[in-house]
């Protein structure tokens, strides 16, 4: 069976190497200023938060939205009540650094850089692009890397969403002081989604952390079930970009 995550991570190594040759880490460090933990501040203002994802494509399902640009999606989400935006910079999702920089100029909401981070270089790069937070996927990092990358993000004033997919991932995440833990409802090998994954993992989570259910949310009812189960928020991409009225769906999932 095809392992999509393994394919992406293998390609990511070459992408990072090419980026380093174009702009060395020391050059990036000279360009950046620390952020002010904007994600953390935003989430503390409300008891429910929607991270709306500017997602045009999926490696498993292909093109998801042909009617809007990433910038247009960002504007709709901000106007419709999203707490934060997630912007892809990985080519498998039609993401790129240039799109992220454009969205940063366009909106005032906190931005999560959605990518497969395997090297500290990408964390500094995220801050250079204007990211307020990064995604750290427990499955593709060693426990030592997970902790190290978390501290690196914090040293730059950025928050980190630590993503887990099963009990082993959850254990790794809870062994760090991560404030935000995202339970991904996507099977990382097949990329199929089911919110039952969040419901199954929540009992082993730490309720003092901010718990976010990621992917597989397609209705207000899904959001209601997750909120009642103990989630503090949701990250939604496909469920928004494929809806008939993106603004209306954003408003439904935001409350």
UniProtKB/TrEMBL annotation:
NCBIfam families: PRK00278.2-4. The gene is trpC. It catalyses: 1-(2-carboxyphenylamino)-1-deoxy-D-ribulose 5-phosphate + H(+) = (1S,2R)-1-C-(indol-3-yl)glycerol 3-phosphate + CO2 + H2O. SUPFAM superfamilies: Ribulose-phoshate binding barrel. Residues 5-253 form the Indole-3-glycerol phosphate synthase domain. It comes from Selenomonas ruminis. Pathway: Amino-acid biosynthesis; L-tryptophan biosynthesis; L-tryptophan from chorismate: step 4/5. Belongs to the TrpC family. Pfam families: IGPS. One of its GO terms (molecular function) is phosphoribosylanthranilate isomerase activity. One of its GO terms (biological process) is L-tryptophan biosynthetic process. Its EC number is 4.1.1.48. The lineage of its organism: Bacteria, Bacillati, Bacillota, Negativicutes, Selenomonadales. It comes from the Bacteria. It is an enzyme of class 4 (lyase). This is indole-3-glycerol-phosphate synthase. InterPro entries: Aldolase_TIM, Indole-3-glycerol_P_synth, Indole-3-glycerol_P_synth_dom, RibuloseP-bd_barrel. Keywords: Amino-acid biosynthesis, Aromatic amino acid biosynthesis, Decarboxylase, Lyase, Tryptophan biosynthesis.
